[in-house]
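Morning!

This is the sequence you dropped in the shared folder:
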Amino acid sequence: MERVIPLPPERVAAYAMDWRHDAEWTQGIRTAQLTKEAGAGGFGVGAQVTRTAYFLGRRIDYVLRVAAHEPPRLLDMTSVAGPMPMHVTYTFVPHAHGTLARIRVRGGEGGFYRLAAPLLARQVRSSLTKDLRDLEHRLTERK
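The structure's back. C-alpha cells below.
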C-alpha cells in the first residue's frame, strides 16, 4: 500500500520509523517496546521491537527484528517470534508533492494462514490503508 504525504521524507520517516509511535498510527497495535538494542545501541539493525496487537479480535504478541535501517529511506523488519512469519517493509521516497510512503507486509504460508489467506489479505490491505491515512493525519496535525 502507498500514499503521498505532503511532507519531506525526513520528517515522515523520522516519525514512522520510531517504534515509540507505533501504537499512535498502526492499526491494532496497543503497545510497542524496544526489547533488544542494536549492536551499536538504540534502534537499528539487530534491534528487536515487541508489539502487542489485536487482529481479527485476537491478541497477538510478536517480535520484529530490524533487518535494514536506512533512514529516511527504508526500514525492513522480520518476525523472530509470534504466531506466524512476517516481513514488514516501510519505504519513503521523495515525491513532487512530498513523500511517497509505502508499507509492505508479507506473511507465512502454512497451516491456518494458507486457508485464511484471502480473508487475511483483505484485512491487511484495509489496515495498511488506514495506517497510511493515520500516519498522514498524525504528521499534518503536528505541523
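Headline: The longest strand covers residues 58-70.

More detail when I'm at my desk.
O.
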